Amino acid sequence: MKYRLSSISILIFLLSLFSCIREKTSETETMQDSIPAESLENSPNDIAINEQKKEPEPVFLTAQDIQLRRELLFDKYILEDTYPYRDTVRSFQWQAICDKLAFIENMQQKPVQWVVFENYKNINGEAPTILNYTRNEYNRITDSLGIERFQSVPLYSPTGDISSPKLYGQDGTLAKIVDTEEDYYLIEPILIEGQWLVPKNYIRELPDSTSFQHIVVVDRIQQNIATLERESPGNWLIRSTNPATTGRFKPPYAQKTPLGIFLLQQKKRRMHYFQDGTREIEGYAPYASRFTNGAYIHGIPVVGVDNPIKEHSPTLGTTPRSHMCVRNNSSHAEFIYKWAPLRRTLVIVIE
């Protein structure tokens, strides 16, 4: 009888043990089912390697990578790639333009906080005088790069004395923020080598979403103008090709249109202008889009503020004759005025 009870007890113990083992196995399988697949597949070493992976480096474009296609939005006064001019020919410098477009594509490959230099008519204060300045033919103070103090912003060396600036940055110049200090931005201009400190009152920050998909190219030598719009990376649509007239060198009032890349900063449906040497309004220019200092892209100047818009001038596309601005047929100036987004369009002046 004793032996029989003992056998029954052992049997009950074995059944209980088997039941516990099955429950633990089921719990383990349930836990494994709830663990993400990647956690089961990746060892700690694999996870560490994945964390160290970097985003692929951007592929920088060259002029040869840029594709242009004519899809005109403005179909008046069209100029072909090469066209007759007097006893010779003129042309659009598409190779040079593609080089600039590649530069603009490349500078936007990574997220950047863009800023623009602002000091039109010294509105934010006349820049301090640099130590080793010269005076140009207009009797204006200039730096070693030929940039005038008037309407420019001061650029200070971040590693040296900031009692006086080293260079001047032209109104409308685009730059990216590197760092921010109490009263200064540390910036990198797109066309001036190095990093510079600029007082904050001379800087306008552009929205984080800013990108540059609209480009206006002005050629001082060929006296023409083209507008282009980005379709996709490396692909640009030509929206217009027209004659234009740029600024001439004639001190003390008329100046050449500045070379460079500038932000389209301001628009005026009518831009009044003064008679030379006075503060008397002589007339107006229609559909004016300002990009640097007092340089506008505008229509044919009209003498008298009450006179109607003048559409065309036979001197367009011939020789420089304006004070600094870029003259266009008035309907083409209107096209640019409406087509080009403010502070999202770049104006490139080449020769």
TrEMBL record:
First and last residue of the signal peptide: none
GO molecular function: carboxypeptidase activity; transferase activity
One BP term from GO: peptidoglycan biosynthetic process
Pathway this chain belongs to: Cell wall biogenesis; peptidoglycan biosynthesis
Keywords carried by this UniProt record: Cell shape, Cell wall biogenesis/degradation, Peptidoglycan synthesis, Transferase
InterPro entries cross-referenced by the UniProt entry: LD_TPept_cat_dom, Transpep_catalytic_dom
Family: Belongs to the YkuD family.
Protein name, per record: L,D-TPase catalytic domain-containing protein
Annotated organism of origin: Porphyromonas crevioricanis JCM 15906
